[in-house]
Design brief:
Elements: H1 11-14, H2 26-34, H3 43-51, E1 57-58, H4 69-72, H5 90-97, E2 108-111, H6 113-125, E3 131-136, H7 141-148, E4 152-157, H8 168-174, E5 179-183, E6 195-198, E7 211-214, H9 218-228, H10 237-248, H11 250-272, E8 278-279, E9 288-289, E10 292-293, H12 302-312, E11 314-315, E12 317-318, E13 329-332, H13 337-356
Parallel strand pairs: 1-11, 3-4, 3-5
Antiparallel strand pairs: 2-7, 6-7, 8-10, 9-13, 12-13
């Protein structure tokens, strides 16, 4: 049971309830609910929440196709469903640490997905008024969280004109004496770098919500632990058991994923060669790319994305969800070959439909 210290006048209201309630005076509620929220919904997650479960062909996801329990071959019949370790299951931390040169389990915290690790890291390191630099385009919470915490955020923007490669001279220009944190998606580990990853993208296990944070900075680990103890406290026992089992067979899962992604990428490349209304920079890794709808062909790309979902039950992510020109869209090719081929064909047909209007 959660216990809170409350004024005596409220005691009779909740003394028989076996739960924790927050009692909000009406004047505060009106100000908060009717005013500006510190944290606002991400356009990306709003788009996901609205459309992802309503479509048949998901060609917007940024991960390999999710797996099922049948495919994992795991027996959890004797797993104790108790609270877990606050830092994460020791065996799981040990196997994660083995992926990093020079790290040991004491340098790892297992979190509820990479999202919790990202949030806790930012919350542990910055204060209102601090300057933060974030590589962009990127997952929106990486810049929305520091913004919501009152930080001054500069976007280190990668552009199609530069093949989405980082311009480190530009990064150096953005960094100031007030810069507290720099968020990049491909840094190598050093004593002052925090590496965050998860089981979601490469392993096809977003549903278990397991991620981790790796760093040699003990004070950062302590701060992150203090923050997550106010939120999730521990991870789910089932989720950690699944992650441990899969990571013990990491090579098999990664080999299968690489073969799958390579085959799907060939499908995307062949399809793009036939698209007069699209242009792109072929990605060097991963399962997503950012094609751009040529402006001279279609003036309002939002009509494409909405028709694609409504008429063809297919799903991509509009560029506006990443604070980009909406002529860009995220195309994911981690799904099944059949799903990908049908989804791509539906994009082609949607582009033709919109041009004819």
């Amino acid at each position: 049971m959660c216990a809170c210290l409350i004024p005596a006048v409220f005691a009779s209201i909740i003394q028989k309830r076996m739960l924790c309630e927050w009692l909000i005076p009406s004047e505060i509620g009106e100000q908060t609910l009717g005013g500006v929220m510190w944290f606002k919904r991400m356009m990306l997650e709003d788009w996901f929440d609205t459309h992802q479960y309503e479509v048949e062909y998901d060609v917007g996801e940024s991960a390999v196709k999710y797996l099922t329990f049948d495919e994992l071959g795991i027996d959890l019949g004797k797993l104790p469903l108790r609270y877990g370790y606050h830092l994460g299951l020791p065996d799981l931390r040990e196997i994660i640490a083995g992926q990093y040169d020079g790290l040991s389990p004491e340098h790892i915290i297992v979190t509820c997905g990479a999202s919790e690790a990202n949030f806790a890291t930012v919350a542990a390191l910055v204060e209102p008024g601090d300057h933060v630099v974030v590589e962009h385009p990127n997952y929106p919470s990486l810049y929305e969280v520091p913004r919501s915490l009152g930080c001054d955020v500069s976007l280190f923007t990668l552009t199609q004109e530069q093949a989405f490669m980082p311009d480190f001279a530009e990064l150096e220009r953005l960094v100031t004496p007030e810069t507290k944190l720099i968020s990049l998606t491909h840094a190598s580990l050093s004593p002052r770098v925090i590496s965050i990853s998860s089981m979601s993208k490469s392993y096809g296990l977003p549903g278990i919500r397991i991620g981790w944070l790796a760093t040699q900075a003990k004070e950062i680990l302590a701060s992150v632990l203090a923050i997550r103890e106010q939120v999730t406290i521990t991870n789910g026992a089932i989720s950690e058991a699944v992650a441990l089992s899969v990571l013990r067979r990491k090579d098999d899962f990664i080999k299968r994923a690489k073969q799958h992604v390579h085959a799907n990428f060939q499908i995307v490349k062949s399809w793009m060669k036939q698209q007069d209304d699209l242009e792109w920079i072929p990605p060097q890794a991963g399962v997503v790319t950012l094609p751009r709808i040529k402006a001279e062909g279609i003036s309002d790309p939002e009509t494409v994305y909405r028709r694609l979902t409504e008429a063809y039950s297919s799903f991509v992510i509009p560029g506006r969800c990443f604070e980009m020109d909406n002529h860009y869209f995220r195309l994911g090719y981690g799904g099944t070959a059949e799903e990908l081929e049908t989804g791509l064909a539906n994009i082609t047909q949607t582009l033709e439909d919109v041009k004819l209007r």
